[in-house]
Amino acid sequence: MSLGPAEGGVQNIPDTAEKCTVAAGCFWGVEHLFRKNFGEQGLYDARVGYIGGDVNNPGYRAVCTGRTGHAEALQMTFDPSTISYTTLLEFFYKMHDPTTKNRQGADTGTQYRSAIFYHSPEQEHAAKEVTEKVQTQWWKGGKISTEILEAGTWWDAETYHQLYLDKNPGGYECPAHYVRSFPPLS
Fold first, then answer.
1. What is the model's pLDDT at position 7?
2. Strand partners, 117
3. What is the pTM of this model?
4. Catalytic residue check, 26
């Protein structure tokens, strides 16, 4: 799989590329699953970082206190002619438990919240529509707590967090991060 810009490689990303920013608990596993499933299918880049807080240039230790307001998140740059934003959101809802507020597995705190950070009115509409569908068709047993918010300032996480599970096989993975088998949405 191409490492792309997350490792400092030079890659020409076309102007038609779009961004998809999601938070689903510990960002190592989120990045790993999205790269594994979409790395050769229109995903130009995937970077872990911080979004949704009120502190400039936060670091990992500060975010882990829960006092910066940031979520650990993944920001993907993708080719919308190859993979749709909706497909990425559907995968997001399959790979974590969106019914646990501020928690994934044993990881607790607002930095581990479930959230979709949209980059356009069209993405906001798609996020709300997909969330409604997965609530009624996939996650009927619990209320989805995923926040749908306008994307604010993105801060890349420290270099050692990028591609963490590729560099550290057997490193910590949240047990709530796995791809669930749900039927296609109607």
1. 52
2. 21, 149
3. 0.93
4. yes
